[in-house]
Amino acid sequence: MKTTTHSKNYSVIIVMLCLFMFNIANAQPKPPTGFEWKEVPELTDEFNRWDRSKWQKPLWNYGVPVQMIARNSGVTDGKLWIKSSLDNSSQRWFQTSRVMSNAQIKFPFYTESKILNSNISAYNTFWLNNGNINNRDEIDVIENNSNPSCGCQPNFPWQMNSQYFHVVNGDTKRNTGNFDNRKLPANNPGRGVRWNQGYHVFGVLMLDSRNIQFYLDGVPAGKVRSARDFTRNMNIIWDLWTADFSWLGGLARKNNLNNDAINTMYVDWVHTYKLVEAGLSVEEDNLKTISMYPSPAKDILNIKELEENTDILIYDYTGRRLLETKANANITTINVSNLPTGAYFVKVE
Question: Of these residues, 46, 143, 283, 305, which one is catalytic?
Answer without folding.
Answer: 143
